[in-house]
TrEMBL record:
Gene3D superfamilies: Peptidase S8/S53 domain (3.40.50.200)
PANTHER family found in the cross-reference section: CEREVISIN-RELATED, PEPTIDASE S8
UniProt-listed SUPFAM superfamilies: Subtilisin-like
Entries under InterPro entries matching the protein: Peptidase_S8/S53_dom, Peptidase_S8/S53_dom_sf, Peptidase_S8_subtilisin-like
UniProt key word Protease: yes
A single GO molecular function term of this UniProt record: serine-type endopeptidase activity
Similarity field: Belongs to the peptidase S8 family.
Name this polypeptide is given: Peptidase S8/S53 domain-containing protein
């Protein structure tokens, strides 16, 4: 009896909405646009500049570490400085959805809620796109992580590479954790934190979709909670106890 052929799944498309992507491992970036403010208050889509911050490139590398075959989209919403706006982020997210993104990772957090970003996130979720964003484990909300339906991620020192945690209680800004992954860029100081944890979870979701273990149309939290290595928040012990 001939075995049934293994189904061939389409490549999973991950949009990195960040500072740009320089030379990711594996296949090159499929599409890239930069989003810049115009004098009339609108947003211009222009060719991207080099990633001078290095942050988006690190995020892309972590996504590809988890899912080497991911098709990457580069939505550059930071320029030469680590500051952006809700309008630019919303424009990058909308563009990514239009280009067929399955997962969008936003390793950033804005302190103020804005209608333009809320509308862009709601439209992405309605289109079936999974939106992953970084958030502090504790403290006040940041956006887009605070919007309903967004996968909210913080760093969790318990997690190794390829592991994730589900905080479980619904409290705090973040709901899931992953390895904060100290990333060393040539010529830069070591960095790490919630933004890289979000990248890792976006990559794990992409890999699960590529492998068929997370089905299209299934809510991401179903797979995330089943895959969690740890449930509950990380307990911090002081030196005195």
């Amino acid at each position: 009896m001939t075995a049934a052929p293994t189904p061939v799944l389409a490549p999973v498309t991950v949009a990195v909405i960040d500072s740009g992507i320089a030379s990711p491992p594996g296949a090159p970036v499929a599409l890239a646009r930069a989003f810049r403010p115009a004098q009339d208050g609108s947003v211009r889509a222009v060719p991207p500049e080099p990633d001078t911050l290095g942050h988006g490139s690190a995020v892309a590398r972590l996504v590809r570490e988890a899912c080497p075959d991911a098709r990457l989209l580069d939505a550059q919403v930071f320029g030469r400085h680590s500051a952006t706006s809700a309008g630019l982020v919303a424009a990058g997210l909308t563009w990514a959805v239009e280009q067929g993104a399955d997962v969008c990772v936003l390793s950033l957090g804005l302190r103020s809620d804005r209608a333009v970003l809320a509308e862009a996130v709601a439209a992405a979720l309605a289109a079936g796109v999974t939106v992953v964003a970084s958030a502090p484990a504790r403290g006040g909300p940041v956006w887009p992580a605070a919007y309903p339906g967004v996968v909210r991620v913080s760093g969790d020192a318990r997690c190794g590479v390829g592991e994730l945690s589900w905080f479980g209680d619904g409290g705090g800004a973040a709901e899931y954790g992953a390895c904060p992954g100290v990333v060393v860029e040539p010529g830069r100081q070591p960095t790490g934190g919630a933004s890289f944890a979000a990248a890792r979870i976006a990559g794990l979701l992409a890999a699960a979709r590529a492998a068929g273990t997370w089905a299209a149309g299934e809510a991401p939290e179903v797979w995330l909670r089943a895959a969690a290595r740890f449930v509950g928040r990380e307990r911090r012990v002081s030196a005195g106890g």
